[in-house]
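Incident review: delayed structure delivery

Summary: a single-chain prediction request sat in the queue longer than the usual turnaround. Root cause was a stuck worker, restarted by the on-call engineer. No data loss occurred. The affected request and its eventual output are reproduced below so the record is complete for anyone auditing the incident later.

Affected input:
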Amino acid sequence: MSKIAKSAQGEQCSLRLECCNFNSETTIWAHISLGFNSGMGMKPLDLHGCYACSSCHDALDGRMSYQVDYRDVLRAMIESQQKLMKKGLIANA
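Output delivered after worker restart:
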């Protein structure tokens, strides 16, 4: 497990979709796949992700019937990357 993935432990969900359970015990680092950055047996880079509770992660990955607004996903990714910078896990270029 990467340092970025490990950093999700105890974090609040950054997606906060309507289905959010707001339970930081279920938060993981959710990879954001838009079709062009992943494929069979491939995951997107860790940088392309966000902190997501189990409910928001299910919605993001299509395991739940929910129309995801990708403006929310972009907001969550930016918010999560800012947290990663504060933790020293990525650099501000």
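Verification: Helices lie at 3-6, 54-60, 70-86.
Action items: add queue-age alerting; document worker restart procedure.
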